[in-house]
Amino acid sequence: MKKIVITRKINPNMIEKLKKDFEVVVWNEDEQPMPRERFLEETKDAHGVMTMLSDKVDREMLENAQNLKVVANLAVGFDNIDLEAARANEVVITNTPDVLTETTAELAFTLMLTAARRVLEANRELMAGEWSGWSPYHMAGTDVFGKTVGIFGMGSIGAAFARRLSGFRVKVLYHNRSRSEVGESMGAELVSFEDLLAESDFVLCAAPLTGETKHRFDKEAFSQMKESAYFINIGRGAHVVEDDLAEAVRNGDIKGAALDVYENEPIGRDHPFIGIDNMTLLPHIGSASVDTRNNMMNLCVNNIMEVLNGGKPITPVQ
Predict the structure, then answer these.
(1) What is the pLDDT of residues 45-94, one digit of tens each?
(2) Which of 76, 145, 245, 308 is 20 to 30 A removed from 115 (C-alpha atoms)?
(3) Residue 277: which of 107, 113, 125 has the closest Cα?
(4) 3-95+290-309 has which fold?
(5) CATH architecture entry for 100-281
């Protein structure tokens, strides 16, 4: 019987679906990833693996897993996987595009509104019993209505975010490797990276991580933004030079930032973002709705079953 390894606790119904035809080994933890040594040991005779972004699928792992045919990554991104080594070892890699688009766009919108209206600051004040009463500028934030929003990366998530802006009568700018017909059908305007930074009141990073986009948001980039502007990131943490962003917010070079992703996760109490009032920080929950996570798991399971049963993967990474 072919063996499948699942590196985190998932919906039991998905496991039962696999157990009908396969031996299934599950690391039954919610928060802690499977230790590296256990990962290598369990996968050395596995035919299929469901991985998380925290699992390093590198050359060592792939060459150690002699029977491996498919790795299904529970994410759209796959920067935890050595694609060249996977190709060399004839291992199919799949991801979960599209099923998390709307949920992640919702969170991006939530981050923008939360930062603009100082929601977390207001909540902390109230919960600490420090609300002293009303005053004209008490917790006064920034309107989104009528402003300019810049989107760095007009892919499916960027476009879903842009659709949600339609009721706010904002001007939408975007910067992308190529022109987006979907974005422009909603009135978005393609501009240079420099113009996106200079003109936007809110800058959303929703791009995939590439060599070109890594650390694109650095001290120079933040210096080109308005002092009243907010930076939002639901793409990848490595788009940002984190010390530069912390300095920009702390010094008032930009108004604030709202983030769901970080270069190295999870972050600790010593991270440069911790303790800065104008930073809204979430623990990488972009796709974290029950419906979406179940859909992602189901897609991973179906990808594994298709490949191991001799079929074609549903969502292969090219």
Answers:
(1) 999 999 999 999 999 999 999 999 999 999 999 999 999 999 999 999 99
(2) 76
(3) 125
(4) Rossmann fold (3.40.50)
(5) 3-Layer(aba) Sandwich (3.40)
